[in-house]
Write the structure tokens for this entry.
Amino acid sequence: MQRLVIVGGGVSGLSAAWAARKALDGAGEVLVLERAAQPGGRSARSAATGFVVEAGPTSYLDDSLPLDRLIRDIGLEPGMLPASRASARRFLVLDGKLRELGPTPGKFFSSGILSAGGILRLFAEPFVPRGGTSARRCGSSARDASGRRRRIA
Ligand SMILES: Cc1cc2nc3c(=O)[nH]c(=O)nc-3n(C[C@H](O)[C@H](O)[C@H](O)COP(=O)(O)OP(=O)(O)OC[C@H]3O[C@@H](n4cnc5c(N)ncnc54)[C@H](O)[C@@H]3O)c2cc1C
């Protein structure tokens, strides 16, 4: 019997496990190894304070057919809500201050969320090379992630 081991039980690992189980159709076993006490990775929710606090993703752009299909297949569709109009106003707590993420580019750039250097680097984004093959990109994801942070900070 085939045995597939997936390291990491975040959205990626769990989706991969779901797809693999479907593909194997009972002909193999899928094992997800997760080092945290519970699966989900960055998709974490807490209700400890009496409020539901989402620590990670809450939304996605509904232009992805594979994601739509996955959500339907795993039975999450009934729990989905269209984005509320109120969510058009977004805020970020930065240095202890609440800052509004302006809905227009002008308001966003004048919000003080990005430094002048950060704004310049943002405009340089289209000219930053994408990297190599997808396999190489996966292998260097940590470096890519820190590089991206550096460009936006
Ligand atoms: C605050 C916040 C808000 C976000 N909002 C959105 C949003 O609205 N929409 C959206 O699309 N995306 C959003 N994202 C991004 C989204 O959360 C991530 O892209 C997605 O969760 C990444 O999933 P992942 O499975 O790849 O990684 P992770 O969620 O990081 O999962 C990786 C898992 O692997 C485990 N792991 C790592 N190494 C090992 C090991 N050696 N052994 C065992 N287990 C291991 C970790 O413990 C973790 O559980 C948000 C992210 C954050 C932080």
